[in-house]
Amino acid sequence: MAHSANLQQRVMWPSRMFPAAVLVLCTVLVGGWFAGPGSAAADPDLPGCTTDASVPNELTVTCDPGSGVGEHAFIRCRDLLGMPHTHIGATIGPDGGWSRANCAPAETGPV
After folding, report:
1. pLDDT digits (tens, 9 = 90+) for 43-91
2. How far is it, in rounded angstroms, from Cα 106 to Cα 32?
């Protein structure tokens, strides 16, 4: 019997967690509102590379061979609570190629 009493003391009941969860939710919402939107443009424009944002929630950077070495695509997205997130694509090598960054399923972008 003593063992079950100790277990009950260690478990945090949902009624105690609810105010903390509401506080965290409010903090996230306010932070998302004040963070403001980000830029959807490539920073900076890379010579020999093109940026394609025609697909919703996706950004692709395509570079000619020798251009954009070490660079990658990045997209700024917002989740359902309005918090901004940055997603980064693969690095472009010396042979050129493409890098694609996608928002998560519940996010929208670019913002």
Report:
1. 457 889 999 989 989 999 999 999 999 999 999 999 888 889 999 999 9
2. 15
* Sheet bearing 97-102, strands edge to edge: 49-52, 58-63, 97-102
Give CA–CA dist 27/18, Å, rounded. Answer: 14
Q: Where are the beta strands (DSSP E) in the chain?
A: 49-52, 58-63, 72-78, 84-91, 97-102
| Selected residue with higher pLDDT from 89 and 29 | 89
Residue among 32, 36, 51 at smallest CA distance from 92: 51
Copy the structure tokens of residue 39: 């830029």
